[in-house]
Specification:
With 368 residues, this protein is of the alpha/beta class. It contains eleven helices and 20 strands.
């Protein structure tokens, strides 16, 4: 039973629709990225929806995230994109998760853990073509890692990289993406010559949509799976709607102030609505003085400092406003919509951080 008057509605049909659009348009298999609790939407539920839409496999950031999917009964291939410490390898191997590895230095440990688990270790090679985080940095290093891992009995099922500038406009960003793609091609060609036969993938959402030449054998769909349509051509649907309810109404006189720091002073008789949501829920304090919400299909300003558990709205101009009115913080109401990109602009961040930052204390309600 949901008790809070602040909640997220997640449209699973939108996620199925988006996954199907990628499967139809990409020309290669689609990996659904459900890390960070499915970008805040709920990992297990969104994974199931994406698979129903045609995705062939899943990706997460940590072994714990992968184990959550296995415990929910999902048995499709799951790639752990981030490096994992040796303590996590045993549970990962036993669960049949695919580990990302940057080199072969711990091949002996993998061999031992595989023997103890009674099954082969599944791994994919991470290649650093210019992101500068993790991965083999040369063809020689990649081949050495492949040989060491193969000798240790690990199944090297793929090799992948990540583009640093795929979502940035301009000739310099495009040139760097092409440089990374060329490096990836050279490194993976050396791997092929050494006997490697796994899948190759480099493109996440932006590159998969904007750079068809970089799709290789597989594309990884993360942020776009949840409805961010970079090109506007795929007809993607946003899956998330963040809602709350008005729990208190009052009218303040000109000159009165509200909330911490007295950052808002009424210039007229002002009707103020209080909502039970704040920065502990992921509604960022940096939205203070910038954000809007939707009440009865109208945009209204968020006034005063965003608190840990409450925010205030100026609803003076909303006809018929009353206690219990449903308010949309992020998403659509009537003919108005507040997108994750718009909220990110108000907060001075990116929409990834908005979505993943909605805290666990906000209940998720799944629409079939």
């Amino acid at each position: 039973m949901r008790l809070r008057d602040t909640w997220l509605e997640v449209d699973l049909d939108a996620i199925r629709h988006n996954a199907a659009a990628f499967c139809r348009e990409m020309g290669v298999p689609v990996m659904a990225v459900v890390k960070a609790n499915g970008y805040g939407h709920g990992a297990v539920e969104t994974a199931r929806a994406a698979l129903k839409g045609g995705a062939c496999c899943l990706a997460v950031a940590t072994v714990e995230e992968g184990l959550e999917l296995r415990e929910a009964g999902l048995q499709v291939p799951v790639l752990v994109l981030g490096l994992s410490g040796e303590a996590a390898w045993g549970p990962a191997v036993r669960a049949g998760l695919t580990l990302a590895v940057a080199d072969g230095s711990q091949s002996d440990s993998l061999r031992r853990i595989s023997r103890e688990a009674g099954r082969e270790a599944l791994v994919q090679l991470k290649l650093d073509t210019g992101m500068g985080r993790i991965g083999a940095r040369s063809a020689e290093d990649a081949v050495r890692a492949y040989r060491e891992l193969s000798t240790a009995g690990a199944v090297v099922s793929g090799a992948f990289t990540h583009f640093a500038t795929a979502d940035i406009e301009g000739e310099e960003a495009l040139a760097y993406l092409h440089l990374q793609a060329e490096r990836f091609s050279r490194m993976t060609e050396a791997l092929r010559q050494a006997g490697f036969s796994g899948v190759l993938h480099a493109s996440a959402s932006a590159a998969s949509i904007l750079r068809s030449e970089c799709r290789f054998d597989l594309v990884r769909e993360g942020i776009a799976l949840y409805g961010t349509d970079i090109s506007g051509a795929l007809g993607l649907r946003e899956a998330l709607c963040w809602k709350s309810r008005i729990l208190f109404l009052k009218t303040i006189a000109p000159g009165e102030t509200v909330s911490y720091g007295r950052r808002f002073t009424a210039q007229r008789p002002t009707m103020v609505a209080t909502l039970p949501v704040g920065y502990a829920d992921g509604y960022r304090r940096s939205l203070t003085g910038r954000a809007e919400a939707l009440v009865r299909g109208r945009r209204v300003p968020v006034i005063g400092t965003v608190c840990m558990d409450q925010i205030l709205l100026d609803v003076t101009d909303v006809e018929g406003v009353s206690l219990g009115d449903e308010t949309v913080l992020l998403g659509r109401q009537g003919g108005q919509v507040i997108t994750s990109e718009e909220m990110a602009g108000w907060a001075g961040t990116i929409n990834y951080e908005i979505m993943t930052g909605i805290s666990a204390r906000v209940p998720r309600v799944y629409l079939p």
